[in-house]
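Note to self: keep these together.
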Amino acid sequence: MAETSIKLHHGDLPAGLKFPRGVAIDTETLGLNPHRDRLCLVQLSGGDGVAHLVKFDGNKYSAPNLKALLSNAKILKIFHFARFDLAVLEKYLGVEATPVYCTKIASKLARTYTDRHGLKDLAAELLGVELSKQQQSSDWGAAKLSDSQLAYAAADVLYLHALKARLDEMLVREGRMDFAQAAFAFLPVRAKLDLAGFGEADLFAH
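Structure:
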């Protein structure tokens, strides 16, 4: 991949940004419980080597430009483990981010020869990129984020477009693209079920 850059924004995206190839999205929160652990950062990339990081201070989530992007049905949103991010974005920004692509689900359907479907594993195998996860558990609510935090957050979106391209090839090769698309379409409902308290329930069990 070409040289990358990180742009930090406070409270919202700047107006006028374009994402013609879809937008890769990730979130950083204070924990894994959307009802308790607030949204601190939203990372976005158009697959062009630029990561836009939107930092939220306190509980101020007006962000009209970001909300307009997330709710734009003409722009594909690419996540890794979309289930969590969709729930967080709906909880704090009040938007349903669709249509959706999830590289973790795509990996589970295409890479059945392994049980390693983390972003670090995908980037290493499919792109030859080594990602550091050192800042995964850090204080994302801090008034000032460190350079290593910013680099970690950016890496979570900079490679998703390239991973999607590789995973799409594998899904088509194995005849599982229809399964993937159906799973992606269900993800917003799965996120709503999580927010409604059905996070651990297997609705398809006996």
